[in-house]
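Thread title: Can someone regenerate the structure for this chain?

I was given the following input by a collaborator and told the matching structure tokens would be attached. They weren't. Posting the sequence so someone can regenerate them.
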Amino acid sequence: MESLRQEACEQFLQRVESERTVCDVLEISGSGDNIVHSETTMPLNEVQGYLRINPGRPTFKLIRFSVKIWLYNKPVPFKEFAWFPDAITELGIEPYLTGRISRFILEFEMIERDIRGGKVTSLYLNLRGSRIIASYSPETRSTTCFMFTLQLDIAQRNFQYMVGYLKQNERLFQNKCFLPLVVMTTVVWEGFFDVTVLGDRAYNRFDEGSLLAWEKSRTDLRWAQYFFSLATDIASYIQTSLDGGTEEGNSVSQAIANNSIEIREAFNILKLEIAPARKCVEWRLQMNDDYMARVSRVLMRKDTLASIELTKTGIELTKSAKIDSSSMKVIAVMTMVFLPGTFFATLFSVPSLHWDNAVVMGENFWVYWAFTIPFTALTVILWLVITQRKQMRSALNMSMEQWSAQSARLKGRLRKSQSVNAEDVWI
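Best answer:
Regenerated them for you:
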């Protein structure tokens, strides 16, 4: 187990990088009517010393780090959080949970450990843009909560919501179930935030933009479904803790007992929202599937009509091309009819032919053939090279292969003949 803890801590240090040199701190302390809270920023290298200070009274500390989380281990560990593994060990938090901070999976877990004769409860929660790892000590009724937030709007939204909820219900911070109730409220709130409702315009539009809107809505609903499932797991833990009577029985002060009652009431109200919310998400997912299928069918029908129009246009173009082809045939036939006459008319008009003399063909008539025959041959060769080069290349390659095969056979026969002659000489 120690090797797994060491590996988890190394993974944390090699994947989690701080975006700022300071962190945000919210502290709630006191009891009864003397509860106060304070907010401040603190350099990262002073956090461990701050955690070691014993105020001598119940305290709730929320420390928020703005971080960047890498998918793979970096060669050199980041030094900003070098103190963090030792700090959580001193608080009694299970060190193995640090390795989960670099995961991108929504999950929740509570672990109880016996530390120095007392019990410490560790909480771990992984949300879409933030990670929460915390400890609660029943002896001091103190909670230390670390929150790692990514540079996302949703992470900032979660932090602000948690801070607002903590300030509003600060009188309950000494209870063991207070922090689980806070994170459960945050998860449920985040789930409701993702239950997007499309306007009437999206219901009546059947185009590509509407399809993209429904696809985004489906993604948000899947996230909401995941959040409500996570809230159900947290609710199961809170219910077990409340029913088990985990507080110290008769030694609990009347104020703490009243806080437990208030937490139970808030939990029961919040729990009642989960089941209807999950049914609402399932219904909206089904409606989303129906409308996406409807939009897809409309778009498919439009594509089919467009294809029919293109086919009609293609038919018209084919008819036009056929008419043009007929016209070209007429032109070609007329050219063939008049070509011989044109040739002989041109030939007879050559100045080298003297029709008035007894000898018609002049001395320089050979010049006409000297130019005509080579250039005609050159024209035919260029036409063959341009239009028939692929066929000529394949024929040339085939001839070369046949020649190579014939040459190999002749060489084989020659070697065989030479070997037979050598044997005759030896004999």
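Residues 175-349 form one domain.
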